[in-house]
Specification:
By secondary structure, the chain is an alpha+beta fold. It has helices spanning 8-27, 44-56, 65-85, 92-110, 113-120, 124-149, 156-164, 191-209, 215-222, 226-229, 245-251, 296-314, 320-326, 359-365, 407-432; strands at residues 33-37, 40-43, 173-174, 177-185, 264-266, 269-279, 282-290, 342-344, 347-349, 377-381, 384-396, 399-400, 436-438. Strands 2-1-13 form a 3-stranded antiparallel sheet. Strand 10 and strand 11 (384-396) form a beta hairpin. The radius of gyration is 26 Å and the shape is globular. The protein starts with 7 loop residues before the first helix and ends in a 21-residue tail after the last strand.
Amino acid sequence: MNFNILFGKWMMAALCCCFITLSSAQENVIDRVEWVVGDKAILRSDIEAAIDFWVQENKKFEGDPYCVVGEDLAVQQLFIHQAGLDSVNVSEMDVMKEVDRIMENNIARAGSKEKLEEYLGKSYSQIREMYYEYVENMMLTESVRRNIIGDIKVSPALVRKFYNALPEDSIPYIPSQVEVQIITQKPEIEIEEVERVKSELREYAERINSGETSFSTLALLYSEDKGSARLGGELPFSGRGEWAPEFSAVAFNLTDPNKVSKIVETEFGFHIIQLVEKRGDRVKVRHILRKPQVSENSIMTMLARLDSIKDDIANGLFSFEDGASQISHDKDTRNNNGVMFYSDQGMSNSKFELQNLPVEVAAAVEKMKVGEVSKPFIMEQRDGTVCAIVKLKSRIDGHKANMRDDYDYLKQLYSAKMGEEKVSKWIKEKQKNTYVRINKENRNCDFLYPNWNFYDESK
C-alpha cells in the first residue's frame, strides 16, 4: 500500500488553492509585465495570484510580498527554461492523473462541477487547461531540480556532524508518528454481478460497431474512470509499462480504429478499448470502465472472516505478520509483514503522522495501544472496497529530533540541505547568463538572489 506523496503536502495545497484564487485576482488587477526571464513574461496578475496563495497557506513573506513572490516566480522560470534546453519531458499521463485528482478535490470543495465553473467564471475545459499547464511546469521544475541535485553522499558520520552543528532552537520537532501493519481481504463479487457488467459492455460494443452511437458518447455517459470519461474515454499516448499488463496486452494489439476490443479484466474492473492512434512504441486509446459492485452480503462475510483471523492471532495460532504475508490481499505490504509505507523523495518511510494515513486506518489506530489489533473495518482503495484489520506496530510521541530515534528523518534533512545548496549554487550561475528584465519599480527589492543580471533599458 504505497501512498506516494511525490511532490509533498505543499504542492497539493498549492494546486488546490492557487487556481481557486487566480480568476478573482486577475479580474481586479490592471495587468502589466513585472519580470521577463529569458523569453517568458511574468505579469502582475501572476504575482497577485501567487501572493493570495501564500496568504491562504500562512507562508511568511520575508520582505515586500511583490518582491519575494516575483523573484520566486522568476526562479521557477529558470528551471523551466533549463528543462527546454535539456529536452526534459514529463509524462502526459502523469500530468493528467494529477490534474484529475486536483479537479476531483476542487469539485468536492465547491460542491459540484457547475459551482466550480461559476466560482471561477470559466468552463470545465478551461479550468482543466489551466491546471494542466501549472502541473506540467511543477513537474518539469522537479525534474530539473532532481537532475541538479543528483546523488548526495550520506553517511552516519556526516548526519551526526550535521545534527551536532544545529543550534538548540533549530533542532526540529517531530510530531507523533505511528507504524501500522495491515491485513486486507477483498470481498468476493458474485458471478451474477460480473455477468451483468460484461453484458453492459457487450451491449456498448454492439452499439458502437453497428454505428448506432460513438464510443466517446458512451464513455462520457457510462465509464467509471471519471478522469478519461470527461474526454470521451480517451487516454494520453502511453507506453506498455504505463497501464495494467492485461490492458496493455490488448491495447497494443489493436489495429482497426473502427472496432472495439474484447472485454478486458484488470484490478480496476472490466474495460472495452478502442484504438485512436499509434506512434512508434506508444499508443493512444479510448476505454470504458465498468466496476462490478460488491454486495452487502459479501462485505459482511469478509468482515466476519477477518474477525475470525483476529481471534486466531489473539489465540496464538499464527502471528499478525504471518497473516499479512500469507493471506492478506494487499500486494504492496504482503512482502513487508504488512507494514504500511509511503514514498517521499524516492525514499520509503513507514512512520506516518495520523493525518497522512488513510482516514479509515487513522480512525482505527488513533486510540489503540502498541501491539493491539483493531476490529475489522471497511475502507476504500483505488481498486474498490476492501475489509481490513490493522495492528499498531509502534508509536513515537512528539519530541525534539535525536540521532537514536530519528536517524532516517535527520538523514533526509541533511540530504535536503545539501540538495538545496546545490540548487542555490546552480541558480546563482544561471543568473549570470540569463536575460532578465524587471519593472524599474522593483529594482530596489531585497532579493534572496541579489545578483540578477538586469537588462539596462538606458542602453
